[in-house]
């Protein structure tokens, strides 16, 4: 639509003017209402007056239409013909106000101000600008046709790939189920063998601990038996205050005899059976225990039979995990393809090339990033976290040009305000580029985005209407 308007304006700006007689300030389209051979009826139909009262510098009509060429009516409008450029309306209050509003100078016909007619120069510049826009539209539309063809091929390829993967998924799922069964079947004897190995080791370790404890108790008995007579007397315990029973920090004869079970002395067997369990946590040996006693033993390697079961189960697990990962990857790809195929990329898919891409705009403070059909972000240039300005919502253009605007919503919330959102206005351009970003309302951003996909087919240049005089 914009390209059509551009080319029509080119035609109009380049035509020769044809003079049509009518009252000052009246447009050619309204000429039929001003017939000097008949009384004039106000355009709002409110009253009819003699024609000689048109432009008599007195406001008769409530809508001001009887004074198009004077400033008598506060709501009147003066039509500038602007031959060679674009016609326009100005408020009638600007007529003869000493300021040239019309490029053809017709608004200052009686003010004494000397105005220069700049319409032809303005028309020339406008035509040059419109020609550039028309060339952009033509080149952009040419690129758009290529994008449409690429989109068509890409969509067909994705649909074919999706169909193939959906069909393959069933077979892969069956393979995963089969490998899961094999894995579980291999893991049962593996676990039983590992449990048996662990139980055997724990029993062996427990027996070793009992033997080591017995050996340790014998070492302690030997240390305590100061006279080496093979009997431990109460007096031999008095030099070990750490064995204190009542907590006063000293070892008494009574406490020593109590530890010996009331006996005056005990042999090594009685010591190991009744005395050692009472003192083994308190006793401070003059000779530290051997490293073998302190070290925590490690479980020995599995025997060949058990290791073979472990290897078989590990192989089954690896095969299952590999197949399961392939299935998950396939399902992720299927979801991605389904999502991409379901997105609205325009009437002919021309916007599909934007999917998966991001376009940046750098300003003095921020770097803005537009990722079409995904999200818009803002990141400070000098450090700081990224802010989400909205995630893809929908096309938001008017009904007759739906694909001229994108809406991104539900971004990061503002302090005591709404969630951020961004409107992306799309315009025809040879290149794909973000040209500006603004915040017209708090937390509501506007982004200008140029793309060949927004270009429309340029029509042939039609001969324009004649300029008015």
UniProtKB/TrEMBL annotation:
This is Glucosidase 2 subunit beta. Keywords: Coiled coil, Disulfide bond, Endoplasmic reticulum, Kinase, Signal, Transferase. It holds the Pfam family PRKCSH-like. Residues 177-214, 282-301 are annotated as: Disordered. GO terms for molecular function: kinase activity. GO terms for biological process: liver development; N-glycan processing. Residues 179-214 have a biased composition (Basic and acidic residues). It comes from Xenopus laevis.
């Amino acid at each position: 639509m914009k390209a059509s308007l551009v080319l029509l304006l080119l035609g109009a700006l380049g035509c020769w003017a044809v003079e049509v007689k009518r009252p000052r300030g009246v447009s050619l389209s309204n000429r039929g209402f001003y017939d000097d051979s008949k009384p004039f009826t106000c355009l709002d139909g409110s009253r009819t007056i003699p024609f000689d009262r048109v432009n008599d510098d007195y406001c008769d009509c409530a809508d001001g239409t009887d004074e198009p060429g004077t400033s008598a009516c506060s709501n009147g409008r003066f039509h500038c013909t602007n031959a060679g450029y674009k016609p326009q309306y100005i408020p009638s209050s600007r007529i003869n106000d000493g300021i040239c509003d019309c490029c053809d100078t017709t608004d200052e016909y009686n003010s004494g101000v000397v105005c220069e007619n700049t319409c032809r120069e303005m028309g020339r510049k406008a035509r040059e600008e419109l020609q550039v826009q028309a060339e952009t539209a033509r080149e952009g539309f040419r690129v758009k046709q290529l994008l449409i063809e690429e989109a068509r091929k890409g969509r067909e390829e994705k649909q074919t790939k999706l169909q193939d993967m959906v069909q393959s998924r069933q077979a892969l799922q069956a393979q995963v189920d089969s490998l899961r069964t094999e894995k579980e079947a291999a893991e049962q004897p593996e676990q039983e063998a590992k449990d048996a190995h662990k139980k055997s080791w724990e029993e062996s370790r427990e027996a070793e601990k009992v033997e080591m404890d017995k050996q340790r108790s014998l070492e302690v008995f030997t240390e305590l038996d100061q006279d080496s007579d093979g009997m431990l007397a109460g007096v031999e315990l008095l030099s070990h205050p750490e064995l204190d029973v009542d907590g006063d920090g000293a070892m008494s004869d009574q406490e020593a005899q109590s530890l010996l079970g009331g006996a005056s002395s005990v042999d090594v067997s009685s010591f190991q059976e009744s005395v050692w369990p009472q003192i083994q946590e308190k006793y401070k040996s003059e000779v530290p225990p051997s490293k073998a006693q302190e070290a925590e033993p490690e479980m020995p390697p599995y025997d060949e039979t058990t290791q073979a079961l472990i290897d078989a189960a590990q192989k089954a697990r690896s095969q299952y995990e590999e197949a399961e990962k392939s299935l998950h990857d396939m399902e992720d790809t299927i979801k991605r393809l389904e999502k991409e195929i379901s997105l609205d990329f325009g009437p002919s898919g021309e916007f599909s090339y934007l999917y998966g891409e991001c376009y940046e705009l750098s300003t003095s403070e921020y770097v803005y990033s537009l990722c079409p059909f995904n999200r818009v972000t803002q990141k400070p240039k000098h450090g700081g976290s990224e802010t989400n300005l909205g995630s893809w919502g929908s096309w938001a253009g008017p009904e007759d040009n739906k694909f001229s605007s994108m809406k991104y919503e539900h971004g990061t919330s503002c302090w005591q305000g709404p969630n951020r959102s961004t409107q992306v206005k799309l315009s025809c351009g040879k290149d794909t580029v973000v040209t500006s970003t603004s915040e017209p309302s708090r937390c509501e951003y506007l982004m200008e985005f140029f793309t060949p996909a927004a270009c429309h087919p340029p029509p042939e240049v039609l001969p324009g209407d004649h300029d008015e005089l």
